[in-house]
Amino acid sequence: MKILLYLILFLPAFSVLKSQNTVTFSYDGSGNRTNRTISSLKSTKDDNSENQREYKDQLGDNDILIYPNPVLTEMKIDIPSLDEGIFASLIIVDQQGRVILKEDKAVSSNLLDLSGLPPGIYYLNITIQDKSVQWKIVKE
User: Fold this and answer.
1) Within this chain, do residues 33 and 90 fall inside the same structural domain, yes or no?
2) Whose CA is closest to 57, among 80, 40, 75, 35?
3) pLDDT in tens, 5-57
């Protein structure tokens, strides 16, 4: 019973200690500080899992999956129920409204290369037949 009590009391303290910063100082021979280093320790939990999500939307009868957002290099846009012969387009514009990327013949699985874009906010317009939806995309 004592062991269980110690585990309950002290186990949370280890996670708090792990999340603290480590500060290291260097001194010369006279005792003067020459360097200070601050090391931030990250937890073992994947911090990006919260930020990079898969987003789902529906446009008419078509389901749309957009991931990851925020994006580093490539963004995937899946429209699984998109049949061949149906007009679908993907357009990415910047905040000034300039067209950055245009894909007139979107298919059921699209991979957009955004590696050449600078970090910022962009807008993704998805048009299927006469219906459209707009998404805000964050490029890191």
Assistant:
1) no
2) 80
3) 766 766 665 555 555 667 777 788 888 877 666 665 544 444 444 455 788 88
